[in-house]
Structure of C-type lectin domain-containing protein:
Amino acid sequence: MKGSDLYEKKKTERKYGIGIERIGSENGTERNESIESERKITKVSDWYEKERNERIRSVRKRTERKERIGSVRKRTEQKYRLGIERIGPENGTERKYRIARKTMIIFEKKADFFQAWQDCDSNNGHLASIQSAYEQGLVEQAMAKTANPKGVYLIGGTDLGRDGRWMWIGLNEVLSNYKYRNFYPGEPNNIGNQHCLSVGNWGGENRGKWDDTECFKQYDGYVCEFETIDQPNPAN
């Protein structure tokens, strides 16, 4: 092979990445196999990329479906305040549920926050944790049934130990800003060492609004929260 031809061949190989391998008999015949090899690699790579994208789409669809189901369930729970718990055998093949329904009961008994907390617990409940407008309505309905229409009643909120960090003591759950809140305008203001919550301090449509109050002061009563369980129908 002439020098100029050899130079052109090497330049072409560098440009296209073609590797030339000498094979065959002693007559020195040459065959270029790298192009076919590259085609196979390209096909495999395209197939892998296609499969990868299909798997990603499949996972994404399953995730979106779960999120939609979870969103619907949350909206249902917020509307009806239903606590849903899966029960049944360990393998999870049976789709049976039990539903926890909340009940708010006011005890018209003089007590401070700690006494009310103990009394609710001794009755297999806890001081009311109001987590939705529906639950707020339950509390206000209970207030309307009391003998004292102007009574002030303790609920289960407190920021004892961490000033300004309110939590529901019965649930051990932080009452963060993005969750349901129903404070009276300007509350909580922590006037006079106020670290517990009550309802009933105002009249009219504001009667159910929350107010921060002194924990050791005795009030007209307290709101206890109870859950009743609806067992699933074995026939379902």
About this structure: The mean pLDDT is 78.
